[in-house]
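Minutes, methods subgroup
Present: GH (chair), OT, SY

1. OT presented the first of two proteins processed in the latest run. Sequence and structure tokens recorded below as shown on screen.
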Amino acid sequence: MEQDLPGAGEQIVLAGLGNPGPRYAGNRHNVGFMVLDELAARMGGKFKAHKSGAEVVEGRLAGRKVALAKPRSFMNLSGGPVAGTARFFKVGPDGVVVVHDELDLPYGSLRLKLGGGDNGHNGLRSITKSLGTKDYFRVRFGIGRPPGRMDPADYVLKDFSTVERKELALNVDRCADAVEALVAHGLLAAQNSFHAS
């Protein structure tokens, strides 16, 4: 699949992954929600419950029509709400961009790609199953590996450390910039800008 710019049509769905509710809000696993909150603030929009099973904000980002979607399901059931939002807005998988945490990247580093495996990420596994394809865009926010012998499943459900939190707002901001670059200029340009740092 050679496509570089998300979405053949005008509309794009930007989905951020996380778990709903205040108990999980500061978790590493919820960084996708944090990035979408930043994008919603840039668009001047507020999330509202949507029949797709996600909280949705509609508006424009980088000159394109976008729907921001935060699934109201738990992480491992993200696929239904993401696919439901895409169906509602008549967006194919090539117009879906998923923002998620990534254990295999150092904290704060960013990687953008189209397609690929789920790398043990239950949210991605659910989305791939619901969309029926791996060919959707991903913006991966590095959270690093757990220390010592900590179970990755426990690690992702812990809040960012005090040291990490000092850089968190900056890193979330940079990730939002990367999403905007992807939407405006395509995958290659966004990779060139954000993979080096």
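2. SY then presented the second protein from the same run.
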Amino acid sequence: MEPIEKQIRTLTDRILADYGKGRYIDRETIFTRPDKDVVEDILEKLQKLIYPGFFKAQSYRYFTLENCTSTLVEDILYNLGRQISLTLRYNGLYADSTDAEIKEKADALSLAFLQRIPHIREYIETDLMAEFEGDPAAHSKDMIIISYPGLYAIMVYRIAHELVLLDVPMIPRMMTEIAHSKTGIDINPGATIGKHFFIDHGTGIVIGETTEIGENVKIYQGVTLGALSTRKGQMLAGRKRHPTIEDNVTIYSGASILGGETVIGKNAVIGANAFITSSIPAGAKVSIKNQEYSVRYDEKFETPKELDDTSWFYVI
């Protein structure tokens, strides 16, 4: 058997040779790309900025809320600006810009974003109230802020969406994918979502890029607000592919609502496991008839009588 040192050299040579095949994944870094770990750290600091009394700043010490806030703002401003500068060349408008021009634009975008923090917090307060008022298992608002994945995913979405509105490339999606990996909730930062948004349980929820959601909307686990088809791939970019959900709609677990022309009208209720590809009028209740099941014991079969009322829905 060859010495391990020689095996390592052989493996290294083989991998380096594989890099030379001219594929996209073989490209060496043309300019430094954004760092996922840094973006995640920015999110953590933004969470501390949004909830000043709930999450401690472990990396530094402070005596007053003013000092803490100032330090967080400076930290986020510097690091977010740096990460934005690493993504701007993905936007063709800045392809020929100098490094100095890129830095100036990135710093301006970072500052513009931080000026929107009060706006983001205004929306998050309504989301918190929706979570508390809509979930009888929520024993306190503190518990929701500290532990609920739904509110965390919404917070990250609201942060990322403001960056989308500022035309910041890549970073918004990085942020929502960090939340996706932590919560199982996939909200594209390009979606438009109104106040008082409530996600219950949350696991498996998918909200597509061109989804429009009104105010006071409640969504349960496993819901998909998606596109009818993505077979055309990039040819569909920029088109309205995902549904519109109007105010005061409730969508129960496992429902799929698909298509850019699909509109769920105000005050509608969509029952569990519904599959919808066309519009639903305001005030309507959509339900799937309960499946019958059999229970076997002592070699006999019994089919229990289920509720005849189709207006009830499966909720945990």
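Chair's summary of item 2: Residues 40 and 103 are 21 Å apart (CA to CA).
Next meeting: continue with the remaining queue.
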